[in-house]
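HUMAN: Can I see a protein plus its fold?

ASSISTANT:
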Amino acid sequence: MEYEAVIGLETHVQLKTKSKMWCGCANAFGSDPNTNVCPVCLGLPGVLPVANEEALRLTVLTGCLLNCEIPRFAKFDRKNYFYPDSPKNYQVTQYDRPSTSQGWMEFEYDGPEAVNGLARVRITRAHLEEDVGKSTHFDRHSGVDFNRAGVPLLEIVSEPDLRGPEMAYAYLKALTDILHRGGISDCDLEKGMVRCDVNISVRPKGEEKLGAKIEIKNMNSFSGVRRALEYEIPRQIAAVQRGEKLRQETRRWDDVAGITEPMRSKEDAHDYRYFPEPDLMPFAPTDTWLAEIRTRVVELPLARKQRFMQTYALPSGDAEVFRDNRPLADFFEAAVPGARNPKAIANFVINNLQAKLSENLAGTDSVKFSPPDLRALVELIESGQISSKIAQEVFAEMYATGTAPGTIVQQKGLAQVSDTGAIEQLADEVIAANPGPAADFRNGKPAALNFLKGQLMKLSKGKANPALAGEILQRKLS
């Protein structure tokens, strides 16, 4: 019997706020242990939480970016569990009335589940909660740093729509691209800003009923998620084929050994004894507040790539560069209005401008010439006033000085020579100076013409019209 995996992901993302979720302590990575703490985030008796409004905004903004419904009533709950890095011995989270629900996300993926190179995964909810502290284990003791406790955390729960390791990896990459582009989070995995729990079961292909759900906890890298799934899926299938009955449990991933190991039997919701958080009012967004949030919605990476391909007829590779580099894309779009050949402008932005910026460790805000100047440079090439080779020299001068391309061409005398008589004279000199290649061409070796054309361009210092030079040489040699 053939089996398939059914995978759902719970992605935990730290929100990009200046302060923590319930207090004014800094939301900052890298501080000395237990320095960004106060009675509120340490859970001391008698304190009251106050919700971080920017965290509420970012949660709803995430819902907008992920095509979610935004309920007009949400509330916070206490999720009770006892653990050393949880100072209150409960977590303030959202249980049955989250701030967002029922969304979906499309992303590029070339697996069998995709349609025209796109896959869609449903989003169950994106709910707001607080992070816990971080435990560090030494030889004979353990320490807890509560700097992270109370940092606003968004948990994005997918439906079990994923079917394999590569699809899960593509989903996570696309999700964090969306969150980073939308200003929700910096999504720095090395700083622990994104962590993932993997829920996986296996079932016979074609069957609708789900198998026993096994959770792999606290994955902190996308490659780790992929590797864990590459191990866990065959493990579960082999167990079922041996006649074993899989039971709901939580496992951990040993990245060094490359295996998953049992941790505990999986908890159900009632094990956490959820109840409404008595110290926080329900959240009821108004029309005005929601309208302000929607003004912060940005164009997402996939949408930008598709638009650039459709609007400007750019190939996929060029559109992907602009998908991943928003400042470069904005510069291109400022240059392209009125252009007959957007692809030519894209070539200069991607090949020339991007190289210069990388070389100088600079951003597009440091560019001295204006985007329309780049369009003017392309128009000089298209009109035959300068050659492509001369255009490279003009671009370098534009980048260095900010001078308009037409001015550079005029001041340096770089205009292309299209005078037939002048080029014929150069052609005669080249043929006389290179009798061997001239004879080769006459004897049926077309490649010799390219050599002669190169010599003519060199003699003209790159100013001769290349097409006209080729025509005149061929006519004279024939």
